[in-house]
Amino acid sequence: MRLRDDIELKEIIEKEKLYLFQEKRLELREKAKEAIAKIQLENRKTYNRKRKQASKYRIGELVAIKKTQITPGRKFCSKFLGPYEIIKILRGDRYVVAKIGEHEGPRTTSTSADHLKRWLMSEYASDNDSDNDCHDDTVFIASEADA
Questions:
Q1: Residue 104 pLDDT > 70, yes or no?
Q2: The model's pTM
Q3: Is the residue at 129 inside a domain?
Q4: Contact present, 65 and 111 (Cβ < 8 Å)
Q5: Alpha-carbon distance 56 to 43, whole Å?
Q6: How far apart are alpha carbons 132 and 111 in whole angstroms?
Q7: Same domain membership, residue 109 and residue 91
Q8: Measured on CA atoms in the order 18, 24, 27, 32, is the torsion positive or negative?
Q9: Which parts of the chain fold into alpha helices (H)?
């Protein structure tokens, strides 16, 4: 025969077990949060170690845009389109650019700073240089800092 005290005692023990279990679980969760935060900080430092700031451009500056769609037979052609003028600055180092003159490429487009180079006019660049097999009449010189 079971006594009434045994049932009450059993309930008290179960409550105590549950309380200890929850305390242990909260403690483990806190330790896990700390470990995750520490690893995330280390990963962030490692990732950002070799990263450099994106070049900043102003409205009205001339830039060249990197070609992202390379077609067959264009191996020796210019890797950039341009000149383009910056017409709007967006967040996240992105820019809206508009085509200047008649050349290959979209009229207006948005692109990120990592696909842009400053456009520097060359003394020897002329519009009559059409002996290029790539049909690219533009010449630009990028400084080593932008490369």
A1: yes
A2: 0.58
A3: no
A4: yes
A5: 26
A6: 27
A7: yes
A8: negative
A9: 4-48
Q: For residue 146, what is the enclosing H or E element?
A: none
pLDDT tens digits along 118-146: 998 764 354 444 444 455 444 555 554 55
Q: Taking Cα atoms as reference points, which of 71, 73, 102, 100 lies closest to residue 85?
A: 100
- For the stretch 82-92, pLDDT in tens is 899 999 999 99
| Residue 11 covered by a domain | yes
Within this chain, do residues 11 and 31 fall inside the same structural domain, yes or no?
A: yes
The two tokens of residue 28 are 């483990």
Domain assignment present for 79: yes
For CA atoms 116, 120, 121, 122, the dihedral sign is negative
> What is the residue range of 88's domain?
61-118
Is the pLDDT at 44 greater than 50? The verdict is: yes
Q: Which residue has the tokens 């490692």?
A: 46
Question: Token pair for residue 112?
Answer: 């990120």
Percent of the chain having pLDDT more than 90? 55
Regarding whether 41 and 13 lie in a shared domain, the answer is yes
Residue 44 placed within a domain: yes
